[in-house]
């Protein structure tokens, strides 16, 4: 027997019934702030599609006017109610066209209204998209996630994501509206990737000042609504007219934050110049410990942030370098698992391109990695030296079997999932290892900067990089032409420690 699926036609017809409101017997009144709307609906549809409406419409407390059931839902906005009712009638909902906050609100409302299949679908959708939504609106999304128990499993993931990308949170125009408990959870984290602890203090101070009864914003705040205050409008240096009551008020606001700031990571100079004027807000014992550097009983550890202050690479290059050091050609480290730390020793654009400057700043420092950016095309090349550099008037060779050279296409944007960062073989980075581990590796000459290979396979001389002969690293030929001179835009040297 021939069959034809008329579900699409049924969906269209029921959708039209909702749009027209013909023969309705239920008026749903949705409201959010001053935004109100009435929806003309049908009890048969509502009861068959929602366990909430099935139960509610059978209760005696529903209000009837002229044969119509009046149903008030003041906690669901007209926009969200409209989407849900369209779904109840047509079975269609388009989440990809919604802002992240609205997707969360759709889940909350669908769960409340007992639309089980839809709420399950939306929750799974959110789990796959939460990073996108956090980038879009970090403050409102976090407030929702911490308000509703349904999102317990997402809370740590979201805090972890923000810890890795703190600027989207702290520089949000809505930052000052974040709830205290959430802000504390964030600054408690050891992995919060803000390199300067003084910067964290500034954010907390602005948040606290905004909550004072006489807020120190540079623009007048008539309605005292935190969402309308720009982070940059809080002047943390304008306290010349404060009295003790002002300081005590701020002390009460920030009391629970002070023990979660790594004061030992703020220099004495910065503390005296910028923070000591706020001495009245500190407990006496804490202030004394800070100025005397007595952190014996201070339980906090330095933040384990993966801070990369390079002008050439991003932090996502670092796990790749670490993996190559440990001969991991597959199953690369990521930001959290890499065992190495990278400390900037030298930047040519800052410290000068001369070989003398390089040796003054980089000799006898242990393992280092050299990162160069070519001037003409932005290509990134460099090399890893597991030994110390050493300035010497005479050339001499040092064995270095674990050294390697590398190449990156600078047009590629890396993320923490290294294996999925490349869509084309031409995009993949190249590593050139020693062809024979018994080869010596030419390293030291006071007239040159970093030098790799017995044939001067890769050599930096002031602001040029070149290859004289390829003898030690044969795969170098894949990204360097022998005897061709390349001009450097910049190069950096990092000390590598485990």
Automatic annotation (TrEMBL):
Organism: Rhizophagus irregularis
Span of domain TLDc: 311-497
Source organism, top-level taxon: Eukaryota
Annotated CDD domains: BTB_POZ_ZBTB_KLHL-like (cd18186)
Residues covered by the BTB domain: 24-97
SUPFAM superfamilies reported in the protein's UniProt record: POZ domain (SSF54695)
One Pfam family linked to the record: BACK
Protein name: Serine-enriched protein
UniProt xrefs under SMART domains: BTB (SM00225), TLDc (SM00584)
């Amino acid at each position: 027997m021939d069959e034809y699926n008329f579900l699409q036609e049924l969906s269209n017809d029921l959708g039209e019934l909702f749009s027209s409101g013909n023969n309705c017997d239920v008026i749903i009144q949705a409201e959010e702030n001053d935004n109100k709307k009435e929806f003309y609906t049908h009890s048969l549809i509502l009861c068959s599609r929602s366990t909430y409406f099935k139960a509610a419409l059978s209760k005696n407390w529903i209000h009837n006017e002229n044969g119509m059931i009046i149903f008030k839902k003041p906690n669901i906005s007209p926009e969200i109610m409209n989407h849900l009712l369209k779904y109840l009638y047509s079975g269609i909902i388009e989440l990809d066209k919604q802002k992240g906050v609205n997707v969360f609100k759709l889940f909350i409302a669908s769960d409340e209204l007992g639309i089980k299949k839809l709420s399950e679908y939306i929750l799974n959708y959110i789990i796959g998209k939460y990073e996108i939504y956090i980038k879009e609106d970090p403050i409102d999304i976090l407030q929702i996630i911490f308000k509703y128990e349904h999102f317990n499993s997402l809370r740590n993931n979201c805090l972890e994501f923000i810890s890795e990308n703190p600027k989207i949170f702290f520089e949000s125009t809505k930052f000052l509206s974040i709830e205290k408990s959430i802000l504390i959870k964030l600054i408690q984290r050891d992995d919060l990737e803000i390199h300067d602890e003084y910067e964290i203090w500034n954010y907390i101070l602005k948040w606290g000042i905004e909550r004072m009864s006489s807020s120190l914003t540079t623009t007048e705040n008539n309605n005292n609504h935190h969402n309308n205050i720009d982070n940059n409008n809080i002047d943390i240096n304008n306290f010349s007219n404060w009295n003790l009551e002002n300081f005590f008020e701020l002390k009460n606001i920030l009391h629970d934050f002070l023990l979660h700031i790594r004061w030992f990571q703020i220099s004495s100079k910065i503390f005296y110049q910028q923070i000591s004027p706020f001495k009245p807000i500190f407990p006496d014992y804490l202030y004394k410990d800070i100025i005397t550097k007595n952190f014996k009983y201070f339980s906090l550890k330095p933040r384990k942030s993966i801070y990369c202050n390079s002008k050439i690479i991003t932090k996502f290059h670092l796990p790749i370098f670490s993996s190559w050091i440990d001969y991991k050609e597959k199953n690369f480290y990521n930001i959290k698992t890499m065992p190495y730390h990278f400390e900037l020793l030298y930047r040519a654009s800052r410290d000068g391109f001369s070989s003398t400057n390089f040796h003054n700043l980089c000799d006898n420092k242990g393992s280092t990695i050299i990162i160069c950016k070519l001037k003409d095309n932005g290509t990134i090349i460099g090399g890893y030296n597991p030994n110390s550099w050493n300035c010497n008037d005479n050339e001499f060779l040092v064995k270095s079997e674990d050294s390697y050279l590398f190449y990156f296409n600078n047009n590629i944007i890396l993320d923490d999932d290294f294996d999925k960062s490349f869509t084309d073989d031409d995009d993949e980075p190249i590593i050139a290892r020693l062809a024979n581990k018994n080869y010596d590796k030419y390293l030291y000459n006071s007239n040159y900067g970093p030098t790799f290979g017995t044939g001067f396979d890769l050599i930096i001389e002031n602001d040029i990089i070149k290859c004289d002969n390829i003898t030690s690293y044969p795969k170098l030929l894949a990204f360097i032409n022998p005897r061709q001179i390349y001009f450097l835009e910049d190069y950096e040297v990092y000390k590598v420690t485990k």
